[in-house]
Amino acid sequence: QVQLVESGGGLVQPGGSLRLSCAASGSIFRLYTMGWYRQAPGKERELVAAITSGGSTNYADSVKGRFTISRDNAKKTVYLEMNSLKPEDTAVYYCNAYISSNLDYWGRGTQVTVSS
Predict the structure, then answer these.
(1) Nearest CA among 45, 44, 78, 50 for reference residue 64
(2) Is the pLDDT score of 76 beyond 80?
(3) How far is 7 from 104, CA to CA, in rounded Å?
């Protein structure tokens, strides 16, 4: 069992920055692919960024060049650095840990609001 706790969300002005963190429990954090997803009101949840156990990353086209995902296996934490934020980035951001369909865990989410 893995528990994920997100933090770092909040209200920020357009063009601003936020850093989300996701702290995980469990002894095999390093083996999980970690991802950040987001869900805006009335929309489906979508992948924002992911990082594999080997450190490979992928990003949604909408955030490429603005967001950076990273992980610290010693701290069992994954980060999402978000720069040049836009109002359309407003959503609840969820952390995900995945190895297989039987090892697939979600955090409760953290709200990010981009507004002037």
Answers:
(1) 50
(2) yes
(3) 20
